[in-house]
Specification:
Helix content of chain A: 55-70%
Mean pLDDT of chain A: 89
Largest interface: A-B, 65 and 65 residues
CATH architecture of chain A: Orthogonal Bundle
Number of strands of chain A: 3
Structural class of chain A: mainly alpha
Distance between the termini of chain A: 26 Å
Oligomer: homodimer
Number of domains of chain A: 1
Largest sheet of chain A: 3 strands, antiparallel
Shape of chain A: globular
CATH topology of chain A: Arc Repressor Mutant, subunit A
Chain lengths: 159, 159
Amino acid sequence: MGTHYKGDDGEVRALDAYIKLIRAADSVAARVQRHESVLGLTATQFGALEALLHLGPLCQRELGEKLLKSGGNITLVVDNLEKHGMVVRQRDQADRRFVTVYLTDAGRARIAALMPGHVAEVVRALSALSPREQEELGRLCRRLGLGTAAEGQGTPPCR
Amino acid sequence: MGTHYKGDDGEVRALDAYIKLIRAADSVAARVQRHESVLGLTATQFGALEALLHLGPLCQRELGEKLLKSGGNITLVVDNLEKHGMVVRQRDQADRRFVTVYLTDAGRARIAALMPGHVAEVVRALSALSPREQEELGRLCRRLGLGTAAEGQGTPPCR
DNA sequence: ATCGAATGGTTGAACATTGATTCATTAACG
DNA sequence: CGTTAATGAATCAATGTTCAACCATTCGAT
């Protein structure tokens, strides 16, 4: 199990941790997302709604940073959410480059209704670890994320 | 920072760990993959070559399991690797449903040449953690991955 | 005030990924 | 045997994602 690469201890240790980290994230994300996508939302759409719900209106650049997605992608995601009436765009009057994205009532209702199930699924996915272990995992992961990630660590990317 | 969801302690703890896990994996994977993709390989192509290098020839179904990717995707990935002469397909004579994928000499040389840089980048990405912490992270992640993931935990998915 | 750099957003091409369908082959079972 | 089920792979449409090019807007020098 783990890595088959021949190298010194430090390399094998890092590779092993790396593989397990990626696999765990994939596994947990897949499990959680199953419950979102069934309801007609992609993971990124869900993440966007959730960010808007918990952080309030955001411009598209901010949304992209929170979700770790490219600008072009955010344009499409917001397009689709807007098409479905979950969200509205509005040009910022002060600085007309910005487009602020607002949750509609329908969007707020939708994401609010989805959250309990989402939370329950996350809790369930992490139930393999004790509370103390979950905290330890969070601590370790936070230090890893600091390296490259956009600093805004507000809201879940949801892949 | 972390989660903005209002809920009981267990929920907040799980959500927080979840977010950080996903972000850390994204962040580390992005960093590592930057060094692979610059050289003309997608993450999945790299993962496939690496699996073949360390595990020997595999059929496409096995490859899909190792990489956590769909069958249709594997067909395309192998197509592209074959086009570039990194890999050859061969029908299994015993059971003609199987197609075994072999590394060519060129493919072996290519992945072998890439590995040291890959390993160095993984080591670097995980250097925020001490050896002991890396082991702890691996231990926690392994227990999370067990929930849903395909059991074959041989080789890195690389997203 | 103006010109150039930087920033936010959009667009379009390229591509990876999935999921459903289909086909060939093998296995199982009567 | 022969039919049916199961398995591995290929194919195709649909979609999410990224990246580069581009436009509009603002900001900063001079």
